[in-house]
Amino acid sequence: MEEEIESVGRAFVDYYYNLFDNSRASVSSLYRPMSMLTFEGQKIQGVLDISAKLNQLPFDQCSHVISTVDSQLSTSTGGIIVFVSGGIQVAGEDHQLRFSQMFHLVPQEGSFFVQNDIFRLNYG
What we know:
This protein is of the alpha+beta class. The protein has 2 helices and 6 strands.
């Protein structure tokens, strides 16, 4: 079971950041009206507002470099908690921005959607 949770978490991470880096507008398909995003302390709810936030970031092109992915079963929902750390290489910048991100994935119709998403840049 633990290997399956890790496998699902890793597959989600690969899929999410591939979408974000190559078709950011498509990331909204992973959220639902009750989904929550906390982005650098700003709380955002719902697909439309989350999509607007992600698509209004001050850069168009970037590439995520994933360092770690840790996943756990969320027994209350049958979902999965996924914690990611890594770097974001923004086009035209010399240095990566370090980040951490947590997703709470909840099962729905044979797949998962993002119920909760917390993102922070790591400074220092």
